[in-house]
Specification:
Urease accessory protein UreF, mainly alpha, 0% strand
Length: 251
């Protein structure tokens, strides 16, 4: 081939992704991560409001570092790890495993506020799933039987795992969506509690987005022996929040 001919050859066209397959996995996760999902996430601050009351958090930078620490020390090692394990259990039909994970979540809520948060949001997601079941094709009754089983173990991580397990998404993507939903709710809580402006909130969210892949990797690598929720200051702040004089949030 001559130099002129070689110069005229067009580069190969980029491969086009398969239509529909990615959307089938992505859209359910976007739905579950949406702040419009009616499970009440906006009502809770996970101890952040109490930390503001006690002057541990008083600025954008302090709120950002607080949430980054909470993502890695609490979410990644506990709830996100449970979500990853529960997705596999739901997809494998292992209800005994799901019950064990649900019981672990219940045992590790160290205050009544944190326990009620996990229960209320889990029950709300259960109700959402029931509404979805009413309009979904389910000839074998699998969806209905799963939802009925969830009614007896309604902690949020286990409920989220069931909702996401019905999608075609990978476990990594499911845990990532769960982490982002938590981050977005917590940033909104910081805007109200500190308070901060919308641009500050976007900077905080950008930092959390950078941290989420590492948190997800930790969650996926965490087994039963390594899973933990050890965060004594969070428990203290949550207990103090129960009697805080003026509150915007339920935790």
């Amino acid at each position: 081939m001559s130099a002129g001919a070689a110069a005229s050859v067009s580069p190969p066209a980029p491969a086009q992704p398969a239509e529909g397959a990615d959307a089938a996995a992505l859209l359910p996760l976007l739905w579950l991560a949406s702040p419009a999902l009616p499970i009440g996430g906006f009502s809770y601050s996970d101890g952040l409001e109490s930390s503001v009351e006690r002057s541990f958090v008083a600025s954008e930078s302090e709120a950002t570092e607080w949430l980054v620490a909470q993502l890695h020390l609490v979410q990644a090692r506990a709830d996100l790890a449970v979500v990853a394990q529960a997705v596999a259990a739901w997809r494998g039909g292992d209800l005994a495993r799901v019950r064990a994970l649900n019981a672990w979540v219940l045992r590790t809520r160290e205050t009544s506020e944190l326990r009620l948060q996990a229960e209320q949001m889990g029950r709300s997601l259960l109700e959402w799933l029931r509404n979805q079941d009413a309009h979904a094709a389910d000839p074998a009754g699998t969806r209905r039987s799963q939802t009925q089983a969830l009614a007896a173990m309604d902690e949020l991580p286990v409920a989220f795992a069931l909702a996401a397990a019905r999608s075609a998404a990978t476990v990594r993507d499911i845990v990532t969506a769960c982490a982002f939903a938590w981050a977005e709710n917590m940033v909104q809580a910081a805007l109200k509690a500190v308070p901060l402006g919308q641009n500050a909130g976007q900077r905080m969210l950008a930092r959390l987005v950078q941290e989420i892949p590492a948190a997800v990797a930790t969650a996926l690598a965490t087994d039963d022996n390594a899973r933990q929720s050890f965060a004594p200051m969070l428990a203290v702040l949550s207990a103090q929040h129960e009697t805080q004089y003026s509150r915007l949030f339920r935790s």
